[in-house]
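Q: Predict the assembly, please.
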Amino acid sequence: MDHIELSLTQSLDHCIKCNICTSACPVAAVTDVFPGPKYVGPQAQRFRHAAQPVPDASVDYCSGCRVCNQVCPTGVRIAELNARARAQIVAERGMPLRNRIIARSGLVGRLSSGPHAPLVNFTLNFAPARWIIERVMGIHRHAPLPKASTYTFRRWFKRRKPATNGRRPQVVYFHGCSTNYYEPHVGKAAIAVLEHLGFEVIVPPQRCCGLPLLSNGDFPAAQSHHEYNVAQLLPYARAGIPIVGTSTSCTLTLKEEAPELLGLHGDDIRAVAAGTYDIFEFLRDLHQQGRLRTDFRPIERELPYHPPCQLRAHRIGRPVLDVLGLIPGLRLRESRAECCGIAGTYGLKREKYQIAMDVGKPLFDFVRASGQDLALCDSETCRWQISGATGVATRHPIEILAEAYGLSV
Amino acid sequence: MQTLSTDVLVIGGGATGTGCALDLAMRGIRCILVEKGDLTHGTTGRYHGLLHSGGRYVTKDPQSATECAHENAILRRIMPHCIEQTSGFFVITPWDDESYGDVFVANCHRTGVPVQEISVAEMLRREPALNPRISRVFEVHDGSADSFLATHSVALAAREYGAEIRTYHNVVDLVRVGDRVVGAIVEDLRSGERIRIDCTYVLNAAGAWAGKIAALAGVTVTVVPGKGTMVAMNHRMVNTVVNRCKLPSDGDIIVPIHTVAVIGTTDVHVPDPDVFGIEPEEIQFMLDEGEKLIPGFRQYRALRAWAGVRPLYKDKDVASDRDIPRTFKLLDHEERDGVSGILSIVGGKWTTYRLMAEQTVNELARRLGNTQPCRTASEVLPVPRFEHRAHAMVTVSTDPAAQTPHYWLGKPLALVESEHAAGDLICECELVTRDRIVAAIDAGAHNLDDIRRDVRMGMGPCQGGWCIYRTANLLYERRCADGLSHTHANEAILHFLQERWKGLTPVLWGDQLRQARLDELIYAGVLGIHRLRALAEPGGGLVTQHPAIATEYVQA
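A: Predicted assembly structure:
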C-alpha cells in the first residue's frame, strides 16, 4: 500500500470521537435514519471485515457531501470511508435497478436527448407518469429532473466552424454528461469564453466521469470509465495542455475522487489528475498571470451564489467570487448553506427525497430571500435542485462571464 | 462468623478455576468457588486472546502442542459464541531462520497440529498488509477467543448445575487441622465480612497466585510469575492471527480480536504477581517487531498496553522462563508435601483450561467416590444475558453461512442497526447499548471495570472518554434503591478513570495522545473531576480500592 492509500485506510485511527462531524453533518441534522458521519465512518469501520458479511446499511444514507471531511479536526477521511463501505455493500448485495439506471448518467442522457427530447421532457413533467416512475423505479415524483436537450453539445461542437486565426494555446474541455445532453448552453458559454481569451479548445472523446457510479457504489464500472477518460486525456496532460471542466463534480472526480476511492495511484492517473482544473480555478490562474481579459460590460445585479460541496472539496477557495468579482457592478452574495441536499443522485431517490429537501432548506430560504430571479451555482445537479425547490432560475457562473464579455451563446 | 460447608472449595475465578467448578458441579459434586476480584480478574482477563492451534509449542513443548490441538477443536464446539475463526499464519520473515520452516512442519506432524503451507501470494491476497518479503507461510487452526465471555459462560453453566460462585471474596487463611486442610477463611471485600468455608478438599486454582495460596497451607509451590506485556492497536490491520515462524519469543504474534489487533508479548520474570510495571522498552521492542510483520505497524494507533502474569510452574531448575513447559501439572500435596485436603492445579494456558479441569476433577471425583464421567467436552455452554440480546441470529444476507450464532466482527453493528439503537449507545466506540450495560449491572457487576469486562464498555479508541460518566449514571440508577449513593458512583468513576489511565500512559503519542488530551478536557476541564475526590467514598457494594485487588500495575 502506498502512502495515499494508507492515509485513507488508516485515517479511521485519527478519530478522537469529538462529534464535530456529527454536529456539522447536514443529513444527520434532519433525519434519524442516518446515525451520522462519526458513527457510519470511523466508528463502524472498526466492525467491517473484508471477508465477512457487511453488517450495516445506514451508511447508504451518507450523501457524500464531504462536509464531515472539511470540519474534522484530525483529518479522518470520513466521506471516503463511507463511499468504500457502500461499495462493499453493493459488491455483496448487488445494486437496485433504480441505482443502476441513475448511476449511468451518460446512458440516460444519450437516450433522452435528441429530436425526441420534447416528448421525453413532456413525459417527465407529466404527473401520472412520474407517479408510475416513482412506484416502479423509486425515483421520487417531485425530484428535480433536468430537461433533455434537442441536440448534444458534442454534435454542436463538431458542426461549428472552428476558429482559425493562427496558432493559439490549446486547452482541453471536459464537458461531462449534463452539458452534453441537458445544458449544451453551458458548454457553448465555456467555449466562447475560452476562445475569447485566445485559446484553441479541444474536446476529446470522453465518457461520464464515473461519479454517479462511485456515489452509488458501483466501483468496477466507475473504474472502467475513469480508465477510459484517463487514456483519452493523458496525451494532453503529458503535453502540458490544461484540462478544464465546467462541472465541478466531474473535475473533482478526475482530480481525486476516482483515484482515491478506487485506489488507483499510477503515474498516468496522477498526471491527468494534476492537469485538471475547475474552469474558474483555471480562469483565476490566468488572471493572476495577467492573461485574463477584463473587457467586461457592467452587469448591475446582486445575485445569490452557492458554492457546491463538490467545489469546496477542491479546496481552491471561491474562484467564482474572485473572477466574477472583476465584473463591474456585479455583486455576488455567497450562501453559507452547507449543502443543497441533492448530492448528485441522492435526492432523486424516493426514500431520500425528503431528506434532501430538508437538508437544502436553509439554502432555498437564502435564495428566496434574495428576491432575485436568478441564482448561480457551479454544479448542475445543485442548480436543478435549487430551481426545483425555489422556482428561481439558476445558471452556471460561466454563462454570466460570457455575458459580461458580450459573447453571444 | 458465617460458616458454609461444601465438598470442594475452588480458589481462583479464572478459566481454570471456573472450568473446575463446572466440571465438579456437572458430576454432582458440591462446590464453592471464591475469587478475590471479578471473574477473569487475573491472567485470564489479561492475555491476547489467542486460541492456540498448538503451533507455538511444537518444537519446545510438544505435549502442550498436542493438548492445544485437541482442546482447540473441543472449544470451537462448546463455545462457538466466544471464538472467532480467524485461522493463523506462521510466517518466515527475513529476520528468521529459513531452515526452521521444515523443522516446524515436521514437528507439527509429529505433535498432531494440523498445518498446511500456502504461497506468499495467497497470504498477501488474504492479508495485504503483511510484509511482502515474507518467504514462507504455514497455515494453522489458530483463532481468537473472548476469555471474559467464555469464563462467564462457564460460570453460568456451573451455577445452573448448582455450583456457588463468589467473586470479590479473598482467601485470608486456610484452616489446617494437623496435616489436613479442612477449609478456608474468606473475606467478602464488599462488606469486610469474614466467612468460614468448610470443605473436604481445597482446590488451589489461583494461577500466578497459587504460590501465595499454597503458602497459607504451609506448602511451597514455586510459580514463576512471567509478566507478558501486550499492546492493543486501534483496528484490525489483519484478520488472521500472525505468528513469526521461529521459537517463541517477544513480540512475535499479532492476534486480531474483536475490534483490535493485539501484539504480544514480552516475558519478564517478576517476583510478585501483584507488583509489576510496563516498561517503555517493552513497548518499543514490540512495535519494532510488529514492523517486521506489518510494514508501517508503528504508524497505526496504539490504544493501550497491559500486562498479565503467566502462571508458570517451576518444577526444577530451568534456564529461561520461556523454557518452562507450558503444560500444566496437578500437585497432590499429600504425596508431595505431606499435607492432605488440598490439591493445586498449576501451569497451563487458557486453551487447555478444560482439559486441566477434567484431569483435576477426575482425581477429586475418584477420591470422593464419585463415578460420573466428565461431560464438559460435549455440552455446549450457555450465553450470558449481557451478551447481545437473546444472542439473536443476525440476518444480513440470504446466505445461510451469514446467519450464524458464531462470533463475527460486524455483529454488534448489525444488531444496533436492526434494533435502531444507534441513539441508545452508551459506549459508542464498542457499540454497547444501554440495554446491555443495564443487563451487566443487573447480573451483578460490582464496579465499572466489571462492566467493561462483561460488555467491552470503555475498551475502544476513546478509552472511556464519553462512556464512563454515562455508565456511572446507569450504575447509580439501577443500584440507588439498594443503597448506592452518588458518592459511591463518584468513586466508581474515579476508580475506572484510574484503571484506564494505567493502560494509556505507556502509549501516549500520536493519535492516542490527542485522544487523552480530549478526554482530559472532558473530565478535568468540563466536569472538574479533580474536585470529585472530596465527594467520593468506597462502598455501596462497589469494590474498588481494596489492596487485595488494586495493586497491579504498580511500577516495580
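Residues 389-403 of chain B have pLDDT under 50 and may be disordered. Chain B touches chain A at residues 126, 128-129, 234-236, 239, 259, 296, 299-301, 394, 396-397, 399, 402, 408-414, 417, 422-423, 428-429, 431, 460-462, 465-466, 511, 514-515, 518 (CB under 8 Å).
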